[in-house]
Amino acid sequence: MKGEKNEKEMQAENYERDEKDKKNEQGQKDKKRRKDDKDKKVKKDKGDKNDKKRKKDKKDQEDKEHNEVREDKEDEQREDKTARKTGN
C-alpha cells in the first residue's frame, strides 16, 4: 500500500511539474512574441520617421530650387528695367 501511494504521489507531482513547465514555456513564447512585435513596431516607426525626413528634405530642396529660379527671374527683370532706363 505504501509503495502504491508513493507512486501515485510521484505521478501527481510529475503531472504538476509538467503543467508548470508547459505554462512557463508558453509564457516564454508569448514574451518573445511581444518583444518581436514591439521590435517590428519600433523598426516601422523609425522607417516612417526616415521616410518623413526624406520627403521633407526633398520638398525643402524643391522649394529652394524654386526660390532660386524666382529670384533669378526677378534679377533679370530688374536688370532689363535698368537697361531700358539707361538706354533711353
Summarize the helices and strands and which ones pair or pack.
Blueprint: H1 2-87
Q: How would you sum up this structure, described in words?
A:
This protein is an all-alpha fold. It has a domain at 52-87. Helix content is 98%, strand content 0%. The protein is built from one helix and no strands. The longest helix is centred in the middle third of the chain and has 86 residues, at 2-87. The chain is rod-shaped and about 125 Å long. 0% of the residues are buried. The model has no long low-confidence stretch (mean pLDDT 86).
Keywords:
single chain; 88 residues; mainly alpha; 1 helix
Amount of helix: over 70%
> Please, what is the average pLDDT?
86
Total of helices: 1
SSE string: H
SSE-based structural type: mainly alpha
Largest sheet composition: none
- The gross shape turns out to be rod-shaped
* Low-pLDDT segments: none
Q: In angstroms, what is the radius of gyration?
A: 38 Å
How far apart lie the N and C ends?
A: 130 Å
The count of strands amounts to 0
Strand content: under 5%
